[in-house]
Design a protein that fits this description.
The chain has helices at residues 18-30, 34-38, 70-85, and strands at residues 42-47, 50-54. It is an alpha+beta fold and 97 residues long. The longest helix has 16 residues, at 70-85. It is elongated.
Length: 97
Amino acid sequence: MNDGMAGHEHATRSDMDPHAIAEAVRHGMFKDDAASKALGMQIEEVGPGFARVSMIVRPDMLNGFRICHGGLITTLADSAFAFGCNSYNEMTVASGI
């Protein structure tokens, strides 16, 4: 199994509800996700193939127009995509946006 389910090694996919798998993966991924944590992201909801992630925009995240920098919005989207795609406990990565 993927490391996302650390602490659930005794369980197999057939033993666990898909939502429980997604939650276990979320916890496993987020505990070591320094980038998402540093930006203050919160994983609000996760399920099979789905994640809702939020981030409060701080003053140090604003660009010259005093709006959130687009790179940070893209980072938020990338994190949500990662939590949703990996929610099945199948390691996935995106190669482009």
